Amino acid sequence: MAGDRGGPQLTADDAPIVARGLVRHFGAGDDAVRAVDGVDLQVEAGEIFGFLGPNGAGKSTTVRMLTTLLRPTGGTARVAGYDVVSQADDVRRNIGVALQDAAIDPLMTGTELLRLQAVLYGLPRSVHARRAGELLERVGLTGAADRRVGTYSGGMRRRLDLALSLIHEPTVLFLDEPTTGLDPMSRIALWDEIRRLNADGTTVLLTTQYLEEADQLADRVAIIDHGRIVSEGRPAALKARIGSPTLFVGVDPAQAEAARQVLAGIGELRPTPEGTLGVGLPEGAAAVSAVVRRLDDAGIVVHHLELSEPSLDDVFAEATGHRLEGSGS
User: How many other CB atoms are there within 10 angstroms of residue 156's CB atom?
Assistant: First the structure.
């Protein structure tokens, strides 16, 4: 029932985030775009769950449905024990959301925005100042608390947005590409804060297009492509399925097809970034010299060689047929 502060009656089988057959169309008729196409998802309590995919794959649309910002076209979802359609108000009371395109008033200070957020969530006036101060300290913005947000750097704004999403102490936190556009140091600082939040018991769903971010933070990942989940599991297990490392080979474009034929006779061809060819080598580094000899015998000049152990990029390539990094999508 909406407004029930006692929370839903959960069973041992309930998880903080559960989606079944989730669908979202944009448009109508023959022109409809199926942005999310039957997503099944379950995030367990205390997990950091990575939702990985390129721009346009359906990550953000899925998150917007789970956070009640978009109504599903089909399927069902429950978040924090509540249905995202029929109990949307209860979902919003129990989650924190930091979206990539969140609008923050540049004329207000960090402290003012946090106190306003506390009002919007109905927190007692007596805790507004204390809670704002705690969160500003937590995200490293105490020194900028009374500065207008318009003077904040990109990294500072992302940290403030994270603080705003935590004002009501949510049990489930959605982070939509929280480090896009940040410099390396700001990215690492935000990673550390996400880990601390998770260690305190917060369940986190993190969308990202950065492979390293998913590998560093996520207990489990789901890879989404063209609105469908194409692979899911623990990063180490997904990489182990790939098995052998990939040898990336760079040759002149005029010799690419001849090189492809040589490599096809050596092992399994794999999707690669543009301008390179790739082949799986079950024997690893020991087989590299033999590959070079075969290419040399065919009169192919090799400009670049790189042997790469299985990565999430390999997992993505195997599942989708293309690389995430450098895809430009």
Answer: 18
